[in-house]
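PROTEIN DESIGN WORKSHEET
SECTION A - STRUCTURE
LENGTH: 106
TOKENS:
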């Protein structure tokens, strides 16, 4: 397949509730992951969220951008990164859950 997928599930593990700020543990994990992604041609970060008073699309987009910024700080070239927020429109059984998916295209 053209893409490999990493799914990072659970807002309480990676983000504070209703926040796009990574937890300290998640930030550390993303910075450790970044060097292994530096040679990937395209890293697409997709944010998804459960229904939210602050708006699913806004929160999921902000979370995806936060992950992109941290990966960039960890040496993934800016031109290889993109971010998209899908709100609650998650595929399949993941609908309505908070998570970030990283798609890797070589």
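SECTION B - SEQUENCE
RESIDUE ASSIGNMENT:
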């Amino acid at each position: 397949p053209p893409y490999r997928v990493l799914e990072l599930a659970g807002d309480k593990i990676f983000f504070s509730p209703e926040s796009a700020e990574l937890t300290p543990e998640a930030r550390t994990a993303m910075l450790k992951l970044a060097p292994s992604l530096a040679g990937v041609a395209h890293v697409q970060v997709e944010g998804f969220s459960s229904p939210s008073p602050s708006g699913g699309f806004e929160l999921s987009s902000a979370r995806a951008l936060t992950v992109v910024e941290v990966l960039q700080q960890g040496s993934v070239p800016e031109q290889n990164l993109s971010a998209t927020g899908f709100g609650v429109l998650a595929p399949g059984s993941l609908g309505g859950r908070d998570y970030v998916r990283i798609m890797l295209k070589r």
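SECTION C - NOTES
Strands lie at 3-9, 42-48, 81-85, 99-105.
The helical segments are 11-14, 24-37, 56-73.
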